[in-house]
């Protein structure tokens, strides 16, 4: 049965904040779930008798399915009601979590992870779309700042919580902890979530969904495995070729269809294109901290996994705290100067990671990383909001799907590129400092991306607070 639309956000009696809390709770458990498993992998490997290559698929499959689901959320948002889609996505996520919590073997655990990823892939872009539809343009920065607080806070506590749980309880306790939160969120959402998205009933184009899955899935798999397997390995080359060819076919098909699954015409808006590129550049630069620094600390400087997690914690917490602040500043002043100052901070602090050595201290890494994350917080949500603000309401679902997809691709590309640079520039005959040399070179590459972002940020010009235009 098709549900009637509830009153729009401008009508009296529409309380936005309870709806936002429900959405943020859903996003929180989705992201927390993504970060919980990394620390627990050794325990899962031991319990289920898996080697590292097989166990890593528990992480890889989540990213792959997530990346496949995100591009088709614009179609799903047009096809189903807000309530129906959110409750279904959270329901699928809950079923996947329940399966993981009782999984007796690797196969069942993989099925649970696939269902979790399918639900999470819908939740993130759907949440952003709803926020943009229920908040007026002058309040969107604040709303996105709250969203940013959650997506920063969840990864900050994930590894520490996971480390504590697997030390004191079986690894399945990770899923016991988040399952009740999901169920409570579903129950509350059932009673308070309104239908705010517009049902346009787009036609289902099976070929487009297949091409999207193979295109984005192939590229994400290729880039995510290139860092470990090497760019010349057969699986990387084949998956990249399949991904590139099918993605080109997918884009060409979307431009021809009257009702595309994903609307690439959003890139006709120069500011949306610019801010999407800026978001990708910052994401690539940011990846250096979350991937390269733990490898440096554990494999070269002799720190434990817990210590490397604690080193990243102040930066993640600072980024989380600053997101609501930068959201309010965006609503007041716009994105331009936030982006310029933020990218200047990111650039300087990235180059401060290019002179590391065997004597580099925990405090130095922690403080520089924290300041770096402050810069990231000044850029990420403001530029995303500025870009999406340029789109009409009917294009916002396509804009949020495109934004999230491009960020996924940037994350995979950034990780593969920086890990490859680090590996290829090690000097093993020079001891620890020779190994750290590879890390320094990888941060030079990350710094170049940050400089590109800084230059691009000068092309944003605020026409009025909360809006942006091209210079």
UniProtKB/TrEMBL annotation:
CDD domains reported for this sequence: MFS_LmrB_MDR_like
Main subcellular location of this protein, as a coarse class: membrane
Record Pfam families: MFS_1
Bilayer-crossing regions: 21-45, 57-78, 85-108, 114-135, 142-161, 173-192, 204-224, 230-252, 272-297, 303-325, 337-356, 362-388, 409-427, 439-460
Protein known as: MFS transporter
Keyword Membrane: yes
Transport as UniProt keyword: yes
Record's subcellular location: Cell membrane
Membrane topology: Multi-pass membrane protein
Molecular function GO terms recorded: transmembrane transporter activity
Sequence ranges assigned to domain Major facilitator superfamily (MFS) profile in this UniProt record: 19-465
Gene Ontology cellular component annotations, sorted alphabetically: plasma membrane
Gene3D superfamilies documented for this protein: MFS general substrate transporter like domains, Multidrug resistance protein D
UniProt keyword list: Cell membrane, Membrane, Transmembrane, Transmembrane helix, Transport
